Amino acid sequence: MALVGILVVTPTQSARAVDPPRATLAAPTPVAGGSNVAEVVKMIDDKLEAGWKENKLTASRQADDYEFIRRASLDIIGRIATHEEIIRFEKDPKETRRAQLIDRLLQSEEYANNWATLWSNWLLTRSGLFTRSNYHDSMVWWLEDQFAMNRPYHEFVKDLITAKGKNIGKDKDANPATNFILAHLGEAVPQADQVKEGHFQMVPITARITRLFLGIQTQCTQCHDHPFDAKLKQKDFWGVNVFLRQVERKGTPPNMRQMQAGMTLELQDNASLNQDGLISYEKRNGVFMVTKPVFLGGGSIDVSKIKNRREELAGLLIEHENFPKAMVNRMWAHFMGKGLSNPVDDFTEQSQCAYPDLLDELGKEFKHYGYNQKDLIRWICNSKAYNLSSVANKSNDKPEAEVLFSRMLLKSMSPEQLFESLYIATSDGTGTKDAKRDQKDKWLNALIANFGDDEGNETNFNGTVVQALMMMNGQEINDAISKPNSGPVAKVSRKGATPKSMIHDLYMAALNRPPTDKEVAKIQDAFKKYRDGLPSQLQDLYWALLNSNEFLLNH
After folding, report:
1. CA dihedral over 192, 198, 200, 201, signed as positive or negative
2. Which has the minimum average pLDDT: 145-159, 188-202, 429-443, 540-554?
3. Cα distances (angstroms) measured from residue 372 to each of 11, 36, 202, 366, 369
4. DSSP notation for 256-318
5. Burial of 326 (C-beta count, 10 Å sphere; 0-12/13-18/19+)
6. What is the pTM of this model?
7. Cβ atoms of 362 and 372 closer than 8 Å
8. Which H or E element spans position 248?
9. d(Cα 422, Cα 434) in Å, to the nearest integer?
10. Residue 411, SS3?
11. CA 416, CA 31: separation in Å to the nearest integer?
């Protein structure tokens, strides 16, 4: 692998590099979606530019088209672009090609696949029985269907909160959405108390619902009032918990060794459980308190007037002021590298939010336009901020400027993005879907088995030297690159191809950009030192590209 060290510039270096201040180029003209796109994008741009002006920041240069197609492809469909997709992109009119690309990606089948993967991690986490099993696969299938239909976000969430039925299968009684609640039931209530208190304590799902859909971390209020937010009391946790105490699970999950056995579970509501709607909880001073269903500071609810508690909970959740803002903030963080409010899922008085008005307004627009998830993506991806380079200038190169979004932030690829991108970069297109799925499962098990915290939460995955070494020692990747007739090197070695054109095509396949003249010169100089022929030289070059920071990072 003699060529690994010859690459000239990596995104890590670029982010620390300093460009001279220059005027920000205009964002692309939005051409797709509803008439709201241009209107909302202008609102985003105006508020961000006001923040830049107030803080004396000059926005970084606009990302070039190669940077943009790679970034948008990774963010929207979960993989780098192909050389063919770049060629098509370049044929579109320059003033509208980025907006056209965004809409083309949103219309692709891979959009639904990617967002099903993202949401399966957010809903089921990366650890436990529901992470790598037929339960997980069933959930992903259901999620793909939701995103393919562009199901309005509030309806999608309501279905998750109120889901009933069997958790696997495709018959009329099957509803894979049940896996969300089934994955987080928590400990069983002692048998003698189950009629009075319900079958399960429902602690994990209580915390996950408020955190995921409202950006309110109630998990610590299980035991005491929130130490940093005076508005969150212990009663708030248990008041939400009561809404879930009539959940009943039929069937027993397999143990981890049996997790592929396919044992069907069923989720229902049992009105005979916890009929009085009262749950007791212990305060730190040892005093026991009792609460009825109460939703985050609201008044107590008369359970006799509630037809179904989970349906009532879903309605209260969707009408909460944080509901649209939490989704907007999560999506902004996915595309921009940080949320408008940080931490992303923890709205408290201590949260850092440089643009509170923008977050509020985007939440209102998201709700006003029917919780259309594709339009939310269009708004963000057509904004000036999303189109900026990750290269800093003297005005915005400090860490404190990151939350003002005057340049794009570097993002580590997720394990799934890394797999899909490697697959695109090395596959000869002859493999089956089943073979790809098996290969992906093997890859993910190797990379993420030890990721997650003691509450099963998603944790950040950062590209590391260890990760790169795993790639470099991967026999499957080596075999794919080295295939004599159909590997990536073989593909670029077409009739009449020159060494320079082959170097160009490998750069496009791996990094989605052409090499600079300086890079070509250094590579050709390195080739002169090889005893082996051109195929071996090109294979080593491709290894170097796939193991560069520029490949491993989303920039």
Report:
1. negative
2. 429-443
3. 33, 11, 30, 7, 6
4. GGGTTS----EEEE-TTTTTT--EEEE-TTS-EEEE----TT-----GGG-S-HHHHHHHHHH
5. buried
6. 0.90
7. no
8. strand 247-250
9. 17
10. strand
11. 30
Share of the chain above pLDDT 90, in %: 63
Helical residues (DSSP H) of 396-533, grouped into ranges: 415-426, 433-448, 465-472, 475-482, 488-492, 499-511, 517-527
Dihedral over alpha carbons 510, 514, 519, 524 (to 10 degrees): 80
Which residues does 436 contact at the CB level (< 8 Å), separation at least 6? Answer: 423
Please give the mean pLDDT across all residues of the chain: 87
How high is the pLDDT of residue 495? Answer: 75
> Which residue(s) pair with 392 in the sheet?
18
Torsions phi, psi of 466, nearest 5? -60, -45
Residue 259 pLDDT exceeds 60: no
- pLDDT tens, residue by residue, 202-218: 999 999 999 999 999 98
Characterise 128 by phi-psi region: left (phi > 0), alpha (psi -120 to 50), beta (else).
left
Report the alpha-carbon distance of residue 179 to residue 120 in Å, rounded.
10
Could you tell me how far CA 374 lies from the centroid of its own chain?
14
476: pLDDT strictly greater than 50 = yes
Which of 448, 335, 320, 444 has its CA nearest to residue 383? 335
Q: What percent of the chain has pLDDT over 70?
A: 87
Q: How far is CA 246 from the centre of its chain?
A: 32
Beta strands at 553-554 and 411-412: parallel, antiparallel or unpaired: antiparallel
Domain ranges of the chain: 13-106+355-410, 151-319, 415-554
| Amino acid 90: pLDDT | 97
| Residues 6 or more apart in contact with residue 529 via CB below 8 angstroms | 2
Do 396 and 407 touch, CB atoms closer than 8 A?
yes
**Buried-state track 422-445, b at ≥16 Cβ within 10 A, e below 16:** bbbbbbeeeeeeeeeeebbeebbe
- Look up residue 39 and give its two tokens: 């209107």
Q: With contact defined as beta carbons under 8 Å apart, do 71 and 512 qualify?
A: no
CA distance 199 to 187: 9
Opening angle at CA 528, ends 526 and 531, nearest 5 = 105
Tell me how far apart the alpha carbons of residues 235 and 224 are, in angstroms, rounded to a whole number: 9
29 near 99, Cβ under 8 Å?
yes
Unique residue bearing structure tokens 């994955």: 183
CA torsion, ordered 175, 177, 183, 187, to nearest 10 deg: -70
